[in-house]
Every structure is written in C-alpha cells, then in structure tokens.
Amino acid sequence: MLMLSLQTTGLVGLAVAENPHERLRILYTKILGVLQSIPKDAAYRKYTEQIVNERFDLVKKETDVQKLQDKLNSGQIEEVIVQAENELSLARKMMQWKPWEPLVEEPPSDQWRWPI
Amino acid sequence: TVRPKNEVEHKQLCAFGEYVAEILPKYIQQVQVTCFNELELLIHPDGIIPVLTFLRDHTNAQFKSLADLTAVDVPTRQYRFEIVYNLLSLRFNSRIRVKTYTDELTPVDSAVPVHKAANWYEREVWDMYGVFFANHPDLRRILTDYGFEGHPFRKDFPLSGYVEV
C-alpha cells in the first residue's frame, strides 16, 4: 500500500475515502434512525437492522482499513460506503412505499399458468 | 447426457426467493425457481419501481445490472403482455427474473429512473408490442420504419405484414 496521497481505489469514478470509519458510522446511524419509523414487525426492518448492526459492530471494532475490508468481505471500503448510501436511500423510499402491507391485488387465475 | 442437478444452488435460490417475498409481500404474487436454477419473481404492475429499486439497492441483493427487458405476448390471457426484467448481481454473481403483466391499454411505470439501461429496451417493447411506459423520457419507435403502423411482435400480426414490399 502506498502513502495516502498516492492511493487509488482502482475503480473508475470512486475516489479514495479519507476517514471511512467516520463516514460509515454516520451512514449506519442514519439508516437505523430511518428504520425506527417502520413498523417493528416488518421483515424489511428486521433484516436490514440485522445487516446494519453486524457491519456497524465490525466498523466499531476494527480500526485498520485493510483488515476491515477483509472482515466485511464486500469489496473495497469505498464500495461499502456507496452500498450504505444506497441502503439509506432505499430505506427512505421504503417508508413511502410501505411494502410490508398485504398483497395489493391478486392476479387473474390463468395469468401465471405455464404452459397455457 | 443430462445436465447435472445443482441442489445446493437450487436451495440457495429458494431461500433467497423466500427472503425477498417476506420483505415485499405487497407486490410479489408468486416466486418460482425453475429446474435450471433460475429465480423468478412474479409482480403486480404497481410494484415495478419498488421491487427493482429494492433489488438494486439492498445490501443482500445488489442486482445493479439490468441485463434484459422484454415482453411476452399471450393473447388468450386477460392481461396479454408479460413484461420480463432480467437482473444480474455482480457482487454475488447471481441472476434474477422479475415478471409483470399488462394489457394493450394500461400503461406501465418506466424502469428508467431505476436502471438507465432500460431506456432503449422500453422503446423496443413499445415499438414491437405497444406497451406504453409512463414517465419514460423519450418513448418513440426504434426498430420499425418511420411510417410503420402496427406492432410486429404481437401474435395477431401476420408474418409478412399488412403492406406489400
């Protein structure tokens, strides 16, 4: 690994993140905050809280960036940051769509029959 | 020779299908895994954008790549067109198929806000089948000739067309 000023992620368009632990901490706290306003029995809230808490614990315990990348096993730390941002925007949209409600409309009985 | 059955992959896909169906019960009508280990989600048309955004953004399902967007015409059904989205996850090396339905006159939400790649695919589905996509940035013909009338891939369109060449 070169010194910080000459590092590169190797991916087009992704800059090296300085202080990734802080950024991830902020993002994961925001996600958990958004998830609080979803009903407690929704599967989305349950599973996302599980994922976010796992990753948050790993981020809190591990201070070395390289070892954190290996433990998370999800690509580079910048990719993990992008994924957390995506999860945050998804959580906000889920609040509006409310996908945990029961089925909107049943399909006609022959709709998904194959062969016809 | 017969392709060997990969039971492990089959079980993993079943488990993932159940996971997604548990998270999105509002839109998912059915989940199936074919014998060739292909996972398919059958969706109500209102749920196109929520389901595609979920599959793209969720950490356990990073299906960032829209591989294909097509339609299938089954004239005997009430909702004759079946819109098919094929997604690929690069992080988990996995594919998934999302299917919706519509008839000739009901518009369907465009997938362009979620996947930019859907732009020309939806123009092709509009041109060939006549399925209208709401909120599409530029829905016009893409493959047929400029003054062409009709939608060629429909089952009731004759093979050599209506106009003599």
From TrEMBL, chain A:
One GO BP annotation of this record: respiratory electron transport chain
Pfam family, one: ETC_C1_NDUFA5
Segment forming the signal sequence: 1-17
Entry membrane topology: Peripheral membrane protein
GO cellular component, one term: mitochondrial inner membrane
Main localization category: mitochondrion
Domain of life assignment: Eukaryota
Places the protein is found: Mitochondrion inner membrane
Keyword field: Electron transport, Membrane, Mitochondrion, Mitochondrion inner membrane, Respiratory chain, Signal, Transport
Assembly information from the UniProt record: Complex I is composed of 45 different subunits.
Function: Accessory subunit of the mitochondrial membrane respiratory chain NADH dehydrogenase (Complex I), that is believed not to be involved in catalysis. Complex I functions in the transfer of electrons from NADH to the respiratory chain. The immediate electron acceptor for the enzyme is believed to be ubiquinone.
Similarity comment text for this entry: Belongs to the complex I NDUFA5 subunit family.
PANTHER family named in the record: NADH DEHYDROGENASE [UBIQUINONE] 1 ALPHA SUBCOMPLEX SUBUNIT 5, NADH-UBIQUINONE OXIDOREDUCTASE 13 KD-B SUBUNIT
Name this polypeptide is given: NADH dehydrogenase [ubiquinone] 1 alpha subcomplex subunit 5
Organism listed in the record: Oxylabes madagascariensis
Automatic annotation (TrEMBL), chain B:
Main localization category: mitochondrion
InterPro entries hit by this protein: NADH_DH_suC, NADH_quin_OxRdtase_su_C/D-like, NADH_UbQ_OxRdtase_30kDa_su, NADH_UbQ_OxRdtase_CS
Gene Ontology cellular component terms for the protein in this record: membrane; mitochondrion
Keyword set includes Flavoprotein: no
PROSITE patterns reported for this sequence: COMPLEX1_30K
Subcellular location: Mitochondrion
Pfam families: Complex1_30kDa (PF00329)
Keyword match Cell cycle: no
Keywords tagged on the record: NAD, Translocase, Transport, Ubiquinone
Gene Ontology molecular function: NADH dehydrogenase (ubiquinone) activity; oxidoreductase activity, acting on NAD(P)H
All copies of domain NADH:ubiquinone oxidoreductase 30kDa subunit, residue ranges: 43-162
Catalytic activity reported: a ubiquinone + NADH + 5 H(+)(in) = a ubiquinol + NAD(+) + 4 H(+)(out)
Family (UniProt): Belongs to the complex I 30 kDa subunit family.
HAMAP family: NDH1_NuoC
Functional description taken from the UniProt entry: Core subunit of the mitochondrial membrane respiratory chain NADH dehydrogenase (Complex I) which catalyzes electron transfer from NADH through the respiratory chain, using ubiquinone as an electron acceptor. Essential for the catalytic activity and assembly of complex I.
Subunit structure: Core subunit of respiratory chain NADH dehydrogenase (Complex I) which is composed of 45 different subunits. Interacts with NDUFAF3. Interacts with RAB5IF. Found in subcomplexes containing subunits NDUFS2, MT-ND1 and NDUFA13.
The name this protein goes by in its record: NADH dehydrogenase [ubiquinone] iron-sulfur protein 3, mitochondrial
